[in-house]
Design goal:
With 532 residues, the chain is an alpha+beta fold. The chain is 31% helix and 20% strand. The strands form 4 sheets. It has a 7-stranded antiparallel sheet with strand order 15-12-14-13-17-18-16.
């Protein structure tokens, strides 16, 4: 409970604000939060308005997709950066009391910016979980409790300081925020061995639509099922995740092999498609396809296929597996580097080999910096023919800075039921595809770059999953559809079936039960039946 002095200071703070129209709402909100929090709320360090000099840097600092920071994009009326779980709880209670729309951000990597912007609910405010990043590792129980403002990199580092043979099967991008990452499933370089992070989640704390903080036992198995892969922003605000640790060897092996079209790249990539999901599940080989300038003339360009691998074991066993299953890559001992698992987290995060692991603690650091981009996803169940690959390379050569990345599935992913959690992309998936186009600030052809992603997506239609054409919810794509004020179940099912397949209907039923008034919502949140 805030002291009378704290409340008086809050009133003085807001009465000094120059933008009087919003001051009353803000004053009411912050007083309400202070009264409903276990700890007092220091306004000057937790609440930022556009008149505050820190507002822009706080809004922008974790954002990965820069096109949603452009002036035409609606910005939050204010940003609230809670310091305690009870601050988040109070923010939900008070937002509901005053009829305020909210967005919640843990890492800022949402592909459509839905964690920090809104097209349909305005004005709105932003709850940024940046200050909630505690990590409690318990090696004896082989578990870790993680506050959802923490990043993958921070979690990996903290575990490595307690054990060299434990890890968590989370994402390859080290700057991802845990909150949204796990709610969408969370794949990483160990998905073929241990499944997703969401598969290994065993408890959570959530603030629900009533402003209650609930653990797994209190929320019930339906809601706990829904938050493990049902996408962020639909059911509440996750405060903590409890994840099972997995065992990793003291020594792992990494490699990076690049092949161009002139080196027989198409045939090698065709073989990769055949083996990547069937090879030893200790081995993860990601294929990243990009354009490479192949001569001194900038118009001389080719395709390079980058085979980016992590093996849970030593070089000798890796080379035997590769010789037996994928000799076409011609992997040699000099291509490989043995290291600890924590060092491999840097490698698969695209940091150069030898980068100190302490960079994982620099949550604003990422090997791939923020950019202007558009991305889409797909799932392949069959091999893409060589002639179709040649057409894909041709399309890529038409674009300035394209990436088409393939993530192999198989292994453990085949053994987990598609209804075990809302994430349904399991048995039969050979690989996931990410299409992405990047461009520079000031480029007047942004629309052309966005259209390129649609063009290449349409081109590969015959070779990917069908009925539905599946997509990864953590690679949000508003091209698939969006919620509007008068949404129908049929309209919502268009994107819902692609992300969740048959699990979408169960998600809708759970949403109807736990948030019938649709308090937690965004352009692709799960809608309740009461809205149909």
């Amino acid at each position: 409970m805030a002291s009378k002095l704290s409340i008086l200071l809050l009133i003085v703070f807001f009465q000094s604000a120059s933008w009087a129209k919003s001051a009353s709402t803000l004053e009411n909100f912050i007083l309400c939060v202070s009264i409903n929090s276990e700890l007092s709320v220091p306004v000057t360090t937790t609440l930022f308005t556009p008149n505050n000099s820190s507002y822009s840097s706080i809004l922008q600092s974790p954002v990965f997709s820069l096109r949603f920071l452009e002036p035409s994009v609606p910005k939050p009326e204010f940003i609230f950066t809670p310091l305690h779980d009870s601050h988040v709880q109070a923010a939900v209670i008070c937002a509901k009391q005053f009829g305020l729309y909210l967005r919640v951000r843990s890492g800022g990597h949402d592909f459509e910016g839905l964690s920090f912007r809104s097209e349909t609910q305005t004005p709105f405010f932003l709850i940024d979980l940046v200050n909630l990043r505690l990590i409690n590792v318990n090696i004896k129980d082989e578990t870790v409790w993680i506050q959802t403002g923490a990043t993958n990199g921070e979690v990996y580092y903290k575990i490595s300081q307690k054990s060299k043979v434990h890890a968590v099967p989370m994402g390859t991008c080290t700057s991802l925020g845990i909150g949204g990452h796990i709610t969408g499933g969370a794949y990483g370089a160990m998905l073929r061995k241990h499944g997703l992070a969401a598969d290994n989640a065993i408890d959570a704390l959530i603030v629900d639509a009533e402003g209650r903080i609930l653990d797994r036992a209190a929320m019930g198995e339906d809601l706990f099922w829904a938050i493990r892969g049902g996408g962020g922003g639909s059911f509440g605000i996750i405060l903590w995740w409890k994840i099972k640790l997995v065992r990793v060897p003291e020594t792992v092996t990494v490699f990076n092999v690049v092949k161009t079209l002139e080196q027989g790249g198409t045939k090698i990539f065709y073989k990769w498609q055949q083996v990547a999901d069937n090879i030893d599940e200790d081995l993860f080989i990601r294929a990243i396809n990009r354009v490479l300038a192949s001569g001194t003339n900038s118009t001389d360009r080719t395709i390079m296929n980058i085979y980016n691998g992590v093996f849970l074991g030593g070089i000798d066993r890796l080379l035997k597996i590769m010789q037996a299953s994928f000799p076409e890559l011609n992997l040699t001992r000099k291509d490989c580097t043995e290291m600890s698992w924590i060092e491999s987290a840097n490698f698969i995060g695209l940091f150069p080999i030898g980068t100190p692991i302490e960079i994982l603690l620099q949550w604003k650091s990422a090997a791939v910096p923020p950019a202007l981009y558009k991305a889409k996803s797909d799932y392949a169940k069959t091999v893409i023919p060589e002639i179709a690959l040649e057409g894909l390379w041709k399309l890529m050569l038409e674009e300035d800075a394209p990436t088409v990345m393939m993530i192999p599935y198989g292994g453990m992913m085949n053994r987990i039921s598609e209804s075990a959690i809302p994430f349904p992309h399991r048995k039969g998936i050979k690989f996931m595809i990410l299409y992405q186009s990047n461009w520079q600030e000031g480029d007047k052809n942004a629309t052309d770059h966005i259209n390129w992603t649609k063009k290449v997506y349409n081109y590969l239609t015959p070779y990917v999953s069908k009925n539905p054409r599946e997509a990864y919810v953590n690679y949000r794509d508003l091209d698939l559809g969006r919620n509007r004020n008068n949404i129908s179940f049929r309209e919502a099912s268009i994107w819902g079936q692609r992300y969740f397949k048959g699990n979408f209907e169960r998600l809708v039923r759970i949403k109807t039960k736990v948030d019938p008034d649709n308090f937690f919502k965004h352009e692709q949140s799960i809608p309740p039946l009461t809205y149909f």
